[in-house]
Design a protein that fits this description.
alpha/beta, 8 strands, 16% strand, binds pyridoxal-5'-phosphate
Length: 235
């Protein structure tokens, strides 16, 4: 079952890439495993999936630690909101944090990265629609925030992540996805000497093809891979 779903998603990803004149290898599938038991994660690894995302530090810790030696074959992104007091734990567990959206968090991550003597990759979560219940930096604040981030020596901003307003209709997401790509391209042109933002993490189960057509480099897919989430599975 997982095999078929994975094959189908990979195929739809490749088709969306080709349709929009992109190379299929330019888009990575991030398997979202929140509420998915570790056994299913192991199944996915055995089917060649290597990039994973979790929303919660505690839940991720249980699963990632259970992987043992297989941890080395996988890459984990934090895709849920991160509280500053969990920044240290997140750094120990994850390879990238996609949800950086405030200066205090940035500073805390930089501090722990410095202690570990590493340069830690981060994405900025951008709240394009300014929905109040949603995390993320507003567009108007993005450039000042990026400049602030550049002053920190132990973090490196390598991407942007966004969650468009929820809609059942995938086409409704398209303007938000194209907006984020435009913003990234414009920033890269303006600041090309200082940094290059490559990654665009956008698109989920219901709209990942539209996201790929609009330039996503990472699509975050949960339900379409693992089925409907059941909170009781959180173990
Ligand atoms: C849960 C989640 C996803 C996956 O959503 P699906 O609709 O199940 O594919 C992607 N991104 C974020 C930030 C999430 O919280």
């Amino acid at each position: 079952m997982l095999q078929e779903r994975l094959d189908e998603i990979r195929e739809r990803m490749a088709e969306a890439s080709i349709r929009s004149g992109r190379r299929p290898g330019d888009v990575r599938l991030l398997a979202v495993t929140k509420f998915v038991p570790v056994e299913r994660v192991l199944d996915a690894i055995s089917l060649g999936q290597s990039l994973f995302g979790e929303n919660y530090v505690q839940e991720a810790k249980r699963k990632i630690e259970a992987l043992g030696d297989l941890r080395k074959e996988t890459t984990w992104h934090l895709i849920g909101h991160l509280q500053r007091n969990k920044a240290k734990a997140a750094l120990e567990l994850f390879d990238c944090i996609e949800t950086v959206d405030n200066a205090k968090l940035l500073s805390a991550i930089n501090k722990y990265a410095k202690e570990k003597d590493i340069i830690f990759p981060l994405f900025i979560q951008v709240n394009l629609s300014k929905e109040p219940q949603k995390s993320g930096i507003f567009l108007d604040d993005l450039i000042p925030f990026l400049k602030e981030a550049m002053a920190y020596k132990n973090v490196k901003i390598t991407g942007f992540m966004t969650l468009p307003p929820f809609s059942d209709e995938p086409e409704d997401s398209r303007p938000w996805f194209s907006k984020l790509r435009e913003v990234r391209d414009r920033i890269n042109e303006t600041f090309y000497k200082d940094f290059v933002i490559k990654e665009l993490s956008m698109g989920m189960s219901h709209d990942f093809e539209v996201a790929i057509e609009e330039g996503a480099t990472i699509v975050r897919v949960g339900t379409a891979l693992f089925g409907e989430r059941n909170k009781k599975n959180e173990a």
